Amino acid sequence: MPRAIISPSVLASDFGQLTAECKRMIKGGAEWLHMDVMDGHFVPNITMGAPVLSCVHKGVPGIFMDCHMMVAQPEKWVNDIADAGGSLYCFHLEATSDPLSLIKAIHDRNMKAGVAISPDTPSTAITDAVGEAADMLLVMTVYPGRGGQKFLDRCVPKVAELRKRFPNKDIEVDGGVGPKTIAPCAEAGSNVIVAGTAIFGAEKPEEVIATLKSAVNT
Ligand code: DX5
Ligand code: ZN
């Protein structure tokens, strides 16, 4: 299995102190920062877009921005997110009719490409060609749209199915993940762990990050 990567979701942070919050997470042991981009169409909420990511990129040297694009037209934002310093562009399979072309466009802008599936999308919707072309597969463990929701156990088997088909890919879980729910995710083969509330809501985020990381490594 690829190495453990912890990607705190900044959606749960104080947006007024965004760069400081990102620095605090990196200091606490996080490898990536998970940036939830919502457009008010694919999901009802609006969060942040390229201008905000650009400020974070400038303010936090060397940051790896794991951009989770909950947007209706993922093709539209590839250039803006690349220009803003995005490191990984993860789009929803439900939002595009041509995932292979989109992955190519993302790679052409030197970003890693991720493919996300919502709770009602089966793992088989990710074809072999798409899974092989992508760098990361994201199994949502809540319905995309907001932080702080309850972890959906029924999504975990999809992680195992994808790990079997794609042994060397990064497989990310996102939604309601924390020390109480990490065990089944890690056991199923997820190695990239997103956690918002569980990390930012903790008194000592570095301890939560270490706990999540060691769960993946065991
Ligand atoms: C949900 C977002 C998640 C969310 C995770 O739509 O994609 O990244 O912020 O937050 P928690 O860990 O609080 O569920
Ligand atoms: Zn997310």
UniProtKB/TrEMBL annotation:
CDD domains: RPE (cd00429). Its EC number is 5.1.3.1. This is Ribulose-phosphate 3-epimerase. It catalyses: D-ribulose 5-phosphate = D-xylulose 5-phosphate. One of its GO terms (molecular function) is metal ion binding. Gene3D superfamilies: Aldolase class I. It comes from Gloeophyllum trabeum (strain ATCC 11539 / FP-39264 / Madison 617). PROSITE patterns: RIBUL_P_3_EPIMER_1, RIBUL_P_3_EPIMER_2. The active site is at D36, D174. The lineage of its organism: Eukaryota, Fungi, Dikarya, Basidiomycota, Agaricomycotina. GO terms for biological process: carbohydrate metabolic process; pentose-phosphate shunt. The keyword DNA damage does not apply. It comes from the Eukaryota.
